[in-house]
Amino acid sequence: MKWRSSHLLRTVPLLLANGEWSEVMKEFWGRIVSDRQSYLLRRDTTLPLTPPRAKIPIVVRPLLHEDIATVAKERPIRLSAMESGLSTCYLATTTDGEICYMQWLIDSSQNDLISREFPGLCPPLGSDEMLLEWAYTFVKFRGLGIMADAMSQISEKGAAAGAHWLYTYVALDNIPSLKGCRSAGYRPYQIRTERWRLFQRAESFEPLELGAKYSFEQEQAPTA
């Protein structure tokens, strides 16, 4: 989350009430001094993909207003995004309707809102580009392969809406999420570095070669 002062006032008390002191302190100290690296992953929607399937059946649907309280109880850091009018947040639910996953699918019509409410989230999107952001699997449902399945289904919604390129950011050391993205058809495209010094942020991108491997794929490569 790219927190603004308005987000802090709304979200931090909920995080503290939820016992997420570490989340608040991580963000605070990270803005004093940190170098954060993440992959910018990309999927070409014209390429065929065999969709992954979770270990339980799921249903993907848009977030409804009545879902906000349930989501915020587990993931209060996303409350500002849910209340901002940012389209479109998708949920994955079990067949009984229990929420197990959430993620936004953002198109170019949201560029002005992003620059105003979430500056630094991403460069302006083109008309054939969409961003998948803020993926979260609810704790109860982790280890079931839900992320790859839900993300694949959400990506297909992006393709159906006319997107050629789909993007998402994932920290370089978040191996479980990177593997889920790989199963959903995403490949390394660039590396983003965010440098924070005394609450001032600078961002840079390093392009990767076409067909670049994930770091964990390189580590698993057989040796001669």
What do these coordinates show?
It contains eight helices and eight strands. The chain has 224 residues and is an alpha+beta fold. It has one domain (5-219): 3-Layer(aba) Sandwich (Aminopeptidase), CATH 3.40.630.30. Strands 2-3-4-5-6-1-7-8 form an eight-stranded mixed β-sheet. The longest helix is centred in the C-terminal third of the chain and has 15 residues, at 146-160. The radius of gyration is 17 Å and the shape is globular. It starts with a helix and ends in a 5-residue tail after the last helix. The relative contact order is 0.19. The model has no long low-confidence stretch (mean pLDDT 87).
Q: How is this structure best summarized?
A:
With about 220 residues, this protein is an alpha+beta fold. The protein has helices at about 5-15, 20-30, 70-75, 80-85, 110-115, 145-160, 175-185, 215-220, and strands at about 35-45, 60, 90-95, 100-105, 130-135, 165-170, 185-195, 200-205. The protein has one domain (about 5-220): Aminopeptidase.
Describe the main β-sheet briefly.
8 strands, mixed
Q: What fold name goes in the CATH topology slot?
A: Aminopeptidase
Sequence of secondary-structure elements: HHEEHHEEHEHEHEEH
Helix percent reads 25-40%
The CATH architecture category equals: 3-Layer(aba) Sandwich
